[in-house]
Design a protein that fits this description.
Chain lengths: 360, 360
């Protein structure tokens, strides 16, 4: 039986990539060693690192003014690195509060300065992106922080907020990184853990404007300074070589697919098919405000928690796994990142129709 | 041709482990998903994590008073986390300076307080462990930091220094972690990147006495506090699941071998054979003081740099790779971690004898 894994992350990776990594696992390019057994300063890994970076530059059309960094610790480490680097003493930063991960980022930032919440959807259980026209930016924010896709609530920014001249926008893109075309020039920095669209867990991708990194607070610990990663090409110390290798294979695959515009179109097709079913059904219900729906994490409810439990169980029996909603909110969540083929979404839709017929 | 990889790290992993990981790479225990594609909160990974921890407790005979943590960022991140957690405001910590990595640890610690160098072998190019009987501990050190094995210089502590009651000893064991029996009760904390004896790069193993973690400075960023990893069982955020999975397989392998006493004996056999050859040869020369020789990284010199270059080249042609010394010191370095079989060391010795005959 074919298995489609709808986990929110770590998540399924492209089948071709997994097979290739398996094939060369013990013998990378004739070395008789796995890539994870080779020195990070040897020619094999140096080429992997350079290609991964170049792929990201190509796919995201990055100019020379941006640097690509690979940093350990996931997005959660970025939650402290960002204010450590960019919050001036006694300063203020603007944060939009659109979900659990925004709230975590805010909590860390408060250790380093004043956080101004420009907008929040907490009062409506994070069912939408806070309406930008109601945002209240501070006069002198060091930066604006947003969470482009909210994995738990199932919401996503479809356009990005305008910012005042000189205020860099920083976006946590963990759960929609490289799932669509964005204009990097709108951002001072974008970042995210790899374990949704880009690879296994254990590496975060950070794309940062070099002049922003250069203005960071000085005298930070070496490993917590963005400039360390820029100056040393993410090789100040041993990087997570296998995770970067997987990221290289996955960005190779993305380029072969035709790049982000093609991937975005496929992602639109997948999410539209699911939302169409939710909209025409009286059995399934989306808790998300229509204008804020995520194309990555489609969350929905059934008439009862009992039916939700049965749904998850029967879906698993039918080869569709990882559909249980986050433990903090319940319900169902279908995470349909880049690696989820259209066939997987079609299988889920067929199952949902059958399940509604049997239980509706 | 069989290849023996003498890299200093990332380094060779046990062949059986690599083959097993390859076999189940795309289908972990019948899930039809790779372990890296599965949720870190699912039953499969939770079992991997629990087993990895239990293996470490068993192998190192840890009591309940110690916690096992998996932290990203390598040993270099520990260089700042240690003083952030344990250096009191205006306080002092004792550091032994036995090599490049000690010096890096000292550099980071100086950002947070006063560092007292208890002893240093810098003046003799780190050719030995600084003589403990000449050490000058401070009156009120928050902790003592040592580097148990010096990967670049090829030196190692064969006994550990005594410490004053109440001063926790913290050891960077990156390059000899779990290569021999140690008494954990001598230490407040031991840590190291996995990429030598324990797995791929991308995860550091930290073993810490719980009462020490509990006395750490408060108000640190969540990801930089040891207590976060203890309280959340290294799952505050998504851990590097594949690296931990590899570490689990490798500790399974270590247990199957018979545990650390057996592994230590094999490591003694390997290193003694190499040092014996160095001692009886007029061609090869060890730059390391005999009492400080590392059993993990055997460094040696040939009569000229030209001969060293030829040695590395011909060894590679004969299936022995990664023998070039660290770029900062030159020479030859044979890293013979747990995964290097005796046959690999025998092959190297045979080659060295032939090379001496041809060039001596």
């Amino acid at each position: 039986m074919k298995v489609y894994n709808f986990s929110a992350g770590p998540a399924m990776l492209p089948e071709e990539v997994m097979l290739k990594a398996q094939e060369e696992f013990c013998d990378y390019h004739g070395t008789r060693c796995g890539i994870m057994e080779l020195s990070h300063r040897g020619p094999e890994f140096m080429e992997v690192l350079a290609t991964a970076k170049q792929n990201i530059c190509d796919l995201m059309k990055l100019g020379d003014d941006y640097a690509v960094c690979f940093i350990q610790g996931g997005a959660s480490m970025q939650f402290c690195m960002i204010p450590m680097n960019f919050m001036p003493a006694g300063g203020v930063a603007d944060y939009a509060d659109s979900g659990t991960w925004s709230a975590n980022a805010i909590k860390e930032a408060r250790r380093f300065g004043t956080v101004n919440i420009v907008g929040s959807s907490k009062e409506t259980n994070y069912d939408r992106i806070p309406l930008v026209r109601h945002w209240k930016p501070s006069e002198n924010a060091a930066y604006l922080h947003i969470t482009s896709n909210n994995t738990i609530a199932g919401t996503q920014y479809h356009t990005f907020p305008p910012v005042k001249e000189g205020v860099p926008m920083i976006a946590d893109m963990s759960s929609d990184f490289m799932s669509r075309v964005i204009d990097i020039n709108e951002f001072g920095m974008v970042y995210g853990g790899a374990q949704k669209n880009l690879g296994p867990s254990g590496v975060a991708l950070v794309i940062i404007r070099k002049d922003l990194a250069a203005r960071a607070n000085s005298d930070l610990p070496t490993m917590l300074r963005y400039s360390t990663y820029i100056e040393k090409d993410s090789m100040f110390n041993t990087p997570p070589t296998f995770a970067i290798y997987m990221l290289k294979l996955i960005t190779d695959w993305m380029k072969a697919k035709g790049g982000l515009a093609v991937i975005e179109e496929i992602n639109n097709t997948k999410s539209e098919a699911l939302y169409e079913l939710l909209d025409r059904s009286d059995f399934y219900r989306s808790p998300v405000s229509p204008g804020s729906r995520s194309k990555m994490n489609v969350v929905f409810r059934l008439p009862s928690e009992e039916l939700e439990a049965t749904f998850v169980k029967e879906a698993t029996q039918n080869g569709m796994t990882g559909l249980k909603g986050h433990r903090s909110v319940g319900g169902i969540r279908a995470s349909i990142y880049n690696a989820m083929p259209i066939a997987g979404v079609e299988a889920l839709i067929d199952f949902m129709i059958q399940f509604e017929k049997a239980n509706g």
